[in-house]
Amino acid sequence: MKFVGIVGTIAEKSYNRKLLEYIVKHYTEIAEIEMLDIKDVPMFNASKDQTNSEVIQNLNNKILAADGVILVTPEHNHTTTAAMKSVLEWLSFNVHPFENKPVLIVGASYFSQGSSRAQLSLRQILDSPGVNALVMPGNEFLLGNVKEAFDDNGELKDERTAGFLGSVLEKFAKWVEVLKALNTKEKEETSWEDEDLTAAGAVDTTVRGVDPDADDWVELAAQKTKAAQKKEYVKLNSGLLTVDQLNWFLNSMPMELTYADDNNQFIYYNHTKPGKEMLAPREPEQTGSPISKVHPDRARDGVKKTIHALRTGETDLVKMPVPGNQINERYLMHYYKAMHDEEGNYRGVNEWVLDMWPIVKAYLEQTGQKLVKDENAQDVIASASKHEEAKVEENIETKVNTSEEPRLDEGIDSVTGASE
């Protein structure tokens, strides 16, 4: 289990920082706990959005990846600190890493109340719209008279205090596990019909404040995020490329690639040909649109089934031939691969479309072999519907599926290109 901890102060000397350091040192058997530094977080100013700065993005990503968050607050004027408040403002402005995130509040103060009023204030902030954290109820840890609480080695002097702190952390870990189990059950109980293709929600990578239906979404989103362009470098997990190099690389791929994120927003394709010349037609002005806007109504049930199967882990790869394939002329395949981050969270769909026939044809020519029809095999080019068996016999090479029932293989583009 992984927790992150934030101390609500930038002071060089802090008893609350000493408290978090004690927690990090002594409770490794409960969880791995990482302290996050906030000394470089700017004072919140909505007029000068710094959400995309390195320090805010680092906090955002660390919190998103953690199982839970420990907030350690001093008390200033009967409330939490300006430093803590500013951090929470940034992390509820254009990013929302605290949403549905388990949080434990602890704190220390010079006198007997142990930051109780600051903790109450912090609970109210964390419960507000835009933050929506899941703060652990009860089990308050209020360290009073903190000047006398630690010895010279940073150890808590009172064994009962240390024991109580340990019990609070153990309960927090159990609470995190319970919430995780509930969320898992909730995900398991969802139906493919619940899959939202309208991108009405948001994920941590969603570019907010830009109309997804705008024809120039890419340019507007790039301006909003101050995205790297042309000769500017992008660090990848195993390389360093400029944006131009990335485009050259992706556009040279022998297949059409599409990225739909975990919010079901169509955000990329490798634009190599005009839309009408593509295997699965797309147009630049469609980028940014929700998936619902790039498919006709008749295809949407199939799209929902495909994405739901990938999102829930029912499968991590859906593959299907495209209706209209012709033997010994073309064999288009659509592949839909679930993408996951380092923590195993679903992050969207990687779709690629490929004409398999040139590859098969080259293999046959180079090896001197030929294809022979298996008379006992069901024809996969023809409709699988038993009601169409007679038609299949009449025209086995060009028959396509005409079933009106939604199927799993009516995926993102198996019925129609995204340009329709």
Automatic annotation (TrEMBL):
Annotated segments matching region Disordered: 281-300, 383-420
GO cellular component, one term: cytosol
Residue ranges the record marks as coiled coil: none
Stored Pfam families: FMN_red, PAS_10
Signal peptide residue numbers: none
Stretches with biased composition (Basic and acidic residues): 385-410
Origin: domain of life: Bacteria
Single Gene Ontology MF annotation: oxidoreductase activity
Transmembrane regions listed in the UniProt entry: none
Protein name: PAS domain-containing protein
